[in-house]
Design goal:
By secondary structure, the protein is of the alpha+beta class. The protein contains two helices and two strands. Helix 1 packs antiparallel against helix 2.
């Protein structure tokens, strides 16, 4: 399964009466959001490692060029 960034939420459409699941995957986030989450002080270590792994994955695929110092 893809790596999650946050919790899955449910949306209820009152017009149709249907409930849909909205997944918050790491691959759907922009580079700016990932860097912001990584640098924030309140980010837990587990999420910080997930973000770092996603950025490294994007660097290997050539989608970004972010260097950790």
């Amino acid at each position: 399964m893809p790596v999650k960034f946050g919790k899955t939420s449910t949306n209820y459409n009152r017009a149709t009466g249907k409930t849909t699941l909205v997944h918050d995957y790491m691959k759907c986030k922009s580079n700016a959001e990932l860097i912001e989450a990584y640098n924030k002080d309140g980010t837990k270590p587990k999420l910080r490692q997930k973000v770092k792994n996603e950025i490294v994955r994007r660097n290997k695929k050539g989608l970004s060029n972010i260097v950790f110092k």
